[in-house]
Amino acid sequence: MQIPHIPVLLTEVLEQFKDIDDGYIVDCTVGYGGHSEALLKQNPNVKLICIDQDDEALSFSKKRLSPYHDRVEFKKGRFSDVVGELKEIKNIKGVLADIGVSSLQLDKLDRGFSFNSQTLDMRMNPQNPKSAYDVINSYSLSDLERILKEYGEVRAYKKMASLIVNQRAKKPFESAKELADFIAKNFSHPKLHPATLLFQAVRIEVNDELEELKKLLENLKILNSFKLSVAIITFHSLEDKIVKDVFKKWSSDCICPKGVMRCECGNNNSLGKIITRKPIVATREEIDKNPRSRSSKLRVFRFY
Questions:
Q1: CATH number of 107-207: 1.10.150.170, 3.30.1360.70, 1.10.287.130, 3.20.20.140?
Q2: Is 3.40.50.150 the CATH classification of the domain at 10-104+209-303?
Q3: Taking the model in full, what pTM does it have?
Q4: Which residues of 264-279 are buried (b: 16+ CB within 10 A; e: fewer)?
Q5: Residues 183-237: tens digit of each pLDDT
Q6: Is 107-207 the same fold as 10-104+209-303?
Q7: With CB atoms 3.0 to 4.6 Å apart as the test, which of 11, 81, 201, 284 could cross-link to 152 if both were Cys?
Q8: pLDDT one-digit tens code per residue, 90-112
């Protein structure tokens, strides 16, 4: 079976879960199954619950992980929803979430994530009603400005949104390639393809990625598993900040509102501790082998 994907920060992820010798580990974003297979090999007494909203990813991983069929359970859906349904399982010891678009989705041109795609899609779940085509060709000028500013952190967001609206009035954008080429003609960037941040913004909007991450983190609290280790891999600053802020909140003893002169909450509200004070990033060796790992950041939290 040909494996077309290199899981990011694999050694670092395995290190965080190496001491788990029973119970379950949840892989929230199984994708091609790279992290899952390595965890099954490293932790022979552990069972995995593998989640994905993409039928293609689930089909591939079921075949790849078939040698471990008695230790793996697959669930389709948005990971935030599925995790919220696992609260009855008392011996979940680890949760891994590799946030963002998978290599499976990036590499297949018909999924519309690539600059060379002949479609304009970007849905992680192809059954979702809203696609990148709808965002680019139907969103108002103000809504395009909003997502470019908030999700893409595009400096020239007003100019980019205006150009898109003016161009689509002549002819709707039909493909990701057409959109990427149009942006490249009108903008430049010293290090990135000029459409990179636009594509990021549209992808986040289509898949509601930031709200999905926030919901996942909220639902993790209800698992109530003893010494549960949570490892989150992010790929851009917006995701990383959400994880960083939530982990900080979880680790804080005092939860009084800002500005309160004296602590009134008891100062004993910490849910656990932050394992990674600074995010773990890819080594130069890994980046050379897998350029997609260059922006990855791993943060880990352990509940009491």
A1: 1.10.150.170
A2: yes
A3: 0.91
A4: eeeeeeebbeebbeeb
A5: 999 999 888 899 999 999 999 999 999 999 999 999 998 886 778 999 999 999 9
A6: no
A7: 201
A8: 899 999 999 977 666 677 777 88
